[in-house]
Q: What sequence folds into this?
């Protein structure tokens, strides 16, 4: 089903290929890996193209489409499909929800439009597209895996995904989802914040005790990495860590590690995904793209950026901790203004929602400036208990002040104009104080 529509889509695309091509892709891991697959595919067809990586497909971006080129959108476009009735021929590969009125100038691959829905990310779809153009592109499958991990889809393995995993020669290792899995274990455990392991995180003595208890010893100068552990060692380590976590918690940290070949080394796909994501969020998507294309200089730059990114996250958390917040009974508003990058505010809100700073069910609203706009992220603290639907809340507030919003029940966000900063805060307060009265 899906392969058939991808083949038709590829046929249409190849007919257009004499025209100059402009790729526009989303800046997260899925978007970047998709763009890398398409770049390689076009390169192998000896086809010239231009490319732009963006945070969001806004009307301003659409107005900037080069008029004479064929456009291909990756991991974008479904949400704004009604704005795309243009003179350009537009191709879209995407997996976000979509209404069914597709303009005449648009050809699209989106699993939601198929009779039989199968969950696939854009990198996987782009890979299937690329492979239908040439079998030679099979060696791009590892990029599809990184994209899939980036969109956290590894818990659901469907038929098509299973095939891609096999083609990518992924080694799947069952065990602990502690991270990074390719660094010596003592460091990995000591710096582990998700999960926070009592007596181990931030405690080097405690870390050595745990490793001793699990019977893991130094080989040569260093401890083994998580991915190098034997099955037996993994079992013992898992037991020792589980004993220190609550039962509710530990289920989240058991799962599959996806080991792929990247730059001729075995790597944890999550780690590569985190590096790509970090570069983009630091405003350097071109480096994440070059990294996916196998560029060595980009790899070095990317590692440095990744370190810098983690420092930004830590200082962002510190900033939030130290500065004044607007605190209601069931919500907290963190207005970071220009002190935190707009591309990091969502990640920070997520980290805070997972920590135990706010009681279960508290609504965390974090705001940061993005030029003349404000990026807002909303998260629910704790795990799964609250019935609050954040998307509905944010949609209704954004709608009242000409904002653009999106997301789902537990994590939502919007962008508003800066002039509505106070108005937004006022609306949030009104909304929740009203709800308290209602109860
Ligand atoms: Mn995606």
A:
């Amino acid at each position: 089903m899906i392969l058939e529509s991808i083949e038709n889509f590829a046929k249409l695309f190849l007919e257009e290929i004499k025209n100059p091509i402009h790729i526009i892709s989303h800046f997260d891991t899925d978007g970047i890996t998709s763009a890398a697959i398409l770049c390689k595919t076009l390169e192998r067809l000896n086809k010239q193209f231009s490319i732009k990586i963006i945070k969001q497909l806004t009307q301003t971006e659409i107005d900037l489409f080069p008029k004479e080129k064929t456009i291909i959108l990756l991991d974008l476009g479904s949400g704004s499909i009604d704005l795309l009735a243009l003179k350009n021929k537009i191709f879209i590969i995407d997996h976000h929800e979509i209404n069914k009125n597709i303009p005449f100038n648009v050809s699209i691959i989106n699993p939601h439009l198929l009779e039989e829905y199968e969950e696939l990310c854009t990198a996987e779809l782009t890979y299937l597209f690329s492979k239908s153009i040439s079998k030679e592109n099979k060696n791009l499958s590892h990029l599809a895996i990184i994209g899939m991990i980036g969109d956290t889809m590894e818990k659901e393995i469907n038929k098509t995904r299973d095939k891609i995993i096999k083609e990518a020669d992924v080694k799947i290792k069952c065990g602990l989802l502690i991270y990074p899995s390719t660094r010596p274990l003592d460091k990995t455990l000591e710096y582990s914040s998700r999960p926070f392991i009592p007596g181990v995180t931030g405690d080097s003595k405690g870390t050595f005790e745990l490793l001793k208890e699990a019977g893991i010893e130094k080989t040569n100068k260093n401890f083994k990495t998580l991915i190098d552990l034997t099955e037996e060692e993994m079992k013992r380590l898992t037991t020792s860590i589980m004993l220190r976590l609550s039962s509710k918690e530990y289920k989240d940290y058991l799962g599959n590690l996806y080991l792929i070949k990247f730059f001729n080394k075995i790597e944890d796909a999550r780690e590569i995904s985190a590096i790509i994501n970090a570069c983009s969020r630091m405003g350097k998507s071109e480096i994440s793209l070059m990294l996916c294309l196998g560029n060595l200089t980009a790899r070095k730059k990317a590692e440095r950026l990744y370190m810098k990114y983690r420092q930004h996250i830590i200082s962002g958390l510190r900033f939030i901790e130290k500065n004044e917040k607007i605190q209601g009974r069931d919500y907290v508003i963190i207005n970071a203004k220009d002190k935190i990058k707009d591309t990091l505010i969502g990640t920070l809100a997520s980290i805070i929602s997972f920590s135990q700073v706010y009681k279960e069910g508290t609504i965390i609203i974090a705001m940061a400036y993005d030029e003349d706009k404000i990026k807002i992220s909303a998260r629910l603290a704790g795990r799964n208990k609250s019935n609050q639907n954040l998307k509905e809340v944010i949609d209704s507030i954004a709608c009242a002040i000409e904002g653009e919003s999106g997301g789902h029940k537990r994590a939502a966000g919007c962008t508003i104009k800066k002039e509505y900063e106070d108005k937004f805060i006022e609306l949030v307060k009104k909304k929740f104080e009203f709800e308290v009265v209602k109860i």
Observations:
- The chain has three domains: 2-167, 172-313, 324-438.
- The pocket of manganese (II) ion is lined by residues 30, 75, 95, 121-122, 151 (CB under 6 Å).
- DSSP finds 16 helices and 14 strands in the chain.
